[in-house]
Amino acid sequence: MQRHVLVIFPHPDDESFGASGTIAQFREQGVPVTYLCGTLGEMGRNMGNPIFANRENLYTFRKQELFEAAKKLDIQVEMLGYRDKTLEFEPQKEVSERIRSYIDTLKPNLIITHYPGYAVHPDHNALGAAVMEAVRTMDSNEQLEVWAHAISNQHEDELGPPDVVHDVTPYWEQKLNAIETHLSQASGMMSLLKDSQKDDTQTSEQLERLRTERYYRLSIKK
Description:
The protein is an alpha/beta fold.
């Protein structure tokens, strides 16, 4: 039984697309979950469909969407406050020390983050690497497990099959509700997902990816 789960991703909506089914399962079990979000995603390319945001005010929508998703998932949110698409340029030691401070305060025994090198977006890889560094600095007696989310197309060829495979079908409604709150980013995909009755290979593949959440258990070498 987990005592506290800390989810660490860089963008609003990463938690909903990548881990909301797993989060919903933990919350059903009464496990507290905190989402440590790295940025406000202000450099995102999507502005809603139809468009309702612009480059100057996108961050305000994304922040509001994030807190609405957190409310639906019944989780706490903490903001790291970095600028979108700049995490790879931040001093990793400083980022990892900030993450370590949250770990020391919240005392999770499970962290969910991106697998550095296999998470496609530079922000994903950079924050995942900072999480790994933060965990490396911890006392070896502290019990802490890390589940890493790999996204790149070829990750299984290099890493093998994931260690944790969650069929989140029982939490599908919660996951869709969380994704749907991110209107600026997800409106196009939601129209595809809601039309799941049609025989569409692309839609079926998207549904399958979202219905299963996969993670690698990382052992942190001191």
